């Protein structure tokens, strides 16, 4: 049987007398109201249990530490931070049972901020609440809704703040120089098991290991925050490591300094100071640990410093100058490297002209031969990606010289392509529309989608050194070389429907790729939106104008597919329709094969036409083939 001294909150006297006290039966030696505990001298053998609020516990914590009381905590309605920090169950019966059945107390650490004890957490600046777990008592739906609400809170304008951060190293001494960085905020806890900090984020943390965890949130863009928040929204697994933009310092002493006053909260109590000194007082509090508090009799004091992603130098200065951007800004090194490549790629060269001529020649022969493999070979050879991606960057950053050079190179490339496509057409005794040619004279919105994806691939491949540029080059050539060759064939034939149809596809693909590549570079941080706005608007207008005939072409394709789907395999009075094709939409002209058991005469063929018109509810022109079923 334990001899317990209960210190209680007088404002909760009725509940204490009726609900708390009976749970201890004969184990209570004395009960003291909070205001009178200072009048009593406690001996080393006394075991003290408190039923107090956070504010009351905080006020007597210095005495507890100084006199080294043996103490246990009960969940009070206003004891939120201490309950989290000491792992106390929110269930009163469970907490009482834990106190009565635990044979020994544990000496745990206490985190202090400028000498003031921290019950649970210290927060500096803005944490976006994305690192916090939802209390485990809540059901899954409430957890999901809370995380989603926090994610929505990320859509706002914020600024990083300058901080100088120093910490004690493995030797126990502070670093020679602090790190000057920019951060959104910091979260500091003594351990990651009982605080509201997600247990999935900090592992290998104990309440008596003599170390604290300082998490420094230093994103380079809103996108980084949203990405982590989005994956956290659907990730319910136990392990969920720190996002890349969060630095983690695990040590016993940390000092944070700023030129301006720092607003910070200790257990939700707002304070202000230009300097915050954090220190862990090892094993200074003897308590009955809550069931969720992780303690070990022997723990290794293993410090950790993950600070390599903290912005420093020029990047830090750029981030401090403005609101946090939506997307990451490219580093100076990335910017210089990419721009030198793009400027070189925008220049007209003899090798570019030769490859352009050869790729068009191969593509034109492939079109006449109705050969997809040959056309693919031409795509691999085509050098069009380089000037198009350079043009996209020029449009994005309003770089007139880069735009002119890129336009010049693209123009000469298209001209040489047209020249060889027309010459080959004149010298080739073929004047038949095959499937490869027909497929490229009726562009629609799907082609614009292909162009956009190709532009994204090209820009992304250029921005990342590790990606092979040839892969994206093929994607761009897919969208440009075949329609260029078909347009040249139409010009050589004098068939303006072929020429204009393929030219529309060529223009569509070119505009779509430039816009998509520019948007990709913007997202990757190679231009501020203010500078990019004009070029993007012009590109959007151009793509919008082109999209009108594409939308019409897409609606025609949908209508054709609907007709084919409706008629293919249709059982008519005379036979079954097969191989249905739409030759023309207005007026509707079809070709089809009717499969019957015997040859058909003129009247029966007319009946087939009448049956199809009845199904479609409109008049048609019909090219009909008859197949006899044996």
UniProtKB/TrEMBL annotation:
Q: Where does the chain cross the membrane? A: 350-368, 374-395, 407-426, 470-493, 499-524, 536-554
Pfam families noted in UniProt:
DUF389 (PF04087)
Keywords for this protein: Membrane, Transmembrane, Transmembrane helix
Q: Which domain of life is it from?
A: Bacteria
- Which NCBIfam families does the UniProt record give? TIGR00341 family protein
Q: What is this protein called?
A: TIGR00341 family protein
The protein's organism comes out as Belliella kenyensis
Give the source lineage, highest ranks first: Bacteria, Pseudomonadati, Bacteroidota, Cytophagia, Cytophagales
């Amino acid at each position: 049987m334990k001899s317990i001294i209960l210190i209680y909150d007088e404002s909760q006297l009725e509940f204490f007398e009726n609900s708390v006290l009976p749970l201890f039966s004969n184990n209570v030696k004395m009960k003291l109201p909070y205001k009178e505990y200072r009048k009593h001298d406690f001996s080393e053998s006394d075991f003290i249990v408190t039923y107090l609020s956070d504010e009351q516990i905080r006020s007597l914590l210095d005495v507890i530490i100084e006199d080294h009381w043996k103490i246990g905590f009960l969940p009070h309605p206003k004891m939120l931070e201490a309950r989290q920090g000491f792992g106390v169950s929110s269930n009163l019966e469970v907490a009482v049972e834990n106190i009565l059945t635990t044979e020994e107390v544990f000496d745990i650490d206490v985190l202090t901020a400028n000498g003031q004890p921290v019950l649970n957490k210290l927060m500096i600046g803005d944490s976006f609440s994305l690192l916090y777990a939802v209390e485990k008592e809540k059901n899954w739906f409430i957890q999901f809704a809370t995380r989603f609400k926090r994610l929505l809170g990320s859509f706002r304008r914020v600024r990083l703040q300058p901080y100088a951060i120093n910490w004690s190293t493995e030797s126990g001494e502070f670093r020679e120089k602090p790190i000057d960085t920019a951060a959104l905020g910091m979260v500091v806890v003594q351990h990651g098991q009982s605080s509201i900090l997600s247990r999935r984020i900090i592992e290998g943390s104990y309440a008596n290991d003599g170390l604290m965890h300082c998490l420094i949130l230093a994103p380079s863009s809103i996108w980084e925050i949203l990405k982590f928040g989005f994956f956290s929204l659907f990730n319910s697994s136990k392990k969920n490591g720190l996002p890349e933009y969060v630095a983690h310092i695990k040590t016993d002493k940390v000092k944070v300094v700023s030129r301006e006053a720092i607003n910070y909260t200790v257990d939700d109590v707002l304070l202000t100071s230009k300097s915050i000194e954090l220190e862990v007082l090892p094993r200074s509090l003897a308590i009955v640990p809550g069931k969720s508090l992780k303690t070990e009799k022997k723990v290794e004091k293993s410090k950790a410093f993950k600070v390599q992603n903290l912005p420093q130098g020029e990047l830090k200065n750029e981030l401090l100058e403005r609101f946090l951007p939506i997307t990451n800004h490219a580093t100076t090194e990335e910017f210089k490297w990419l721009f030198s490549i793009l400027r070189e790629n925008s220049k007209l060269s003899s090798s570019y002209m030769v490859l352009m001529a050869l790729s068009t020649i191969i593509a034109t022969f492939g079109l006449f031969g109705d050969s997809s493999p040959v056309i693919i070979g031409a795509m691999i050879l085509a050098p069009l990606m380089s000037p198009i991606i350079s043009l996209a960057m020029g449009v994005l950053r309003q770089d007139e010289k880069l735009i002119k050079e890129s336009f010049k190179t693209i123009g000469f490339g298209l001209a040489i392509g047209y020249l060889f496509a027309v010459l080959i057409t004149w010298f080739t005794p073929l004047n038949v529309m095959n499937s490869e040619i027909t497929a490229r004279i009726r562009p629609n919105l799907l082609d614009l989608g292909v162009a956009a994806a190709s532009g994204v691939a090209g820009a992304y491949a250029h921005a990342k050194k590790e990606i092979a540029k040839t892969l994206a080059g093929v994607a761009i050539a897919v969208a440009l070389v075949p329609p260029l060759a078909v347009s040249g064939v139409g010009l050589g034939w004098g068939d303006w429907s072929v020429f204009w149809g393929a030219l529309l596809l060529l223009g569509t693909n070119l505009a779509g790729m430039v816009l998509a590549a520019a948007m990709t570079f913007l997202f990757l941080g190679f231009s501020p939106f203010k500078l990019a706005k004009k070029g993007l608007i012009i590109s959007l207008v151009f793509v919008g104008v082109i999209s009108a005939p594409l939308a019409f072409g897409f609606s025609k394709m949908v209508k054709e597919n609907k007709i084919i789907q409706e008629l293919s395999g249709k059982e008519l009075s005379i036979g079954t329709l097969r191989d249905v094709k739409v030759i023309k939409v207005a007026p509707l002209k079809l070709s089809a094969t009717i499969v019957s058991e015997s040859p058909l005469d003129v009247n029966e063929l007319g009946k087939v036409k009448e049956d199809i018109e009845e199904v479609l509810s409109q008049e048609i022109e019909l090219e009909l083939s008859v197949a006899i079923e044996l």
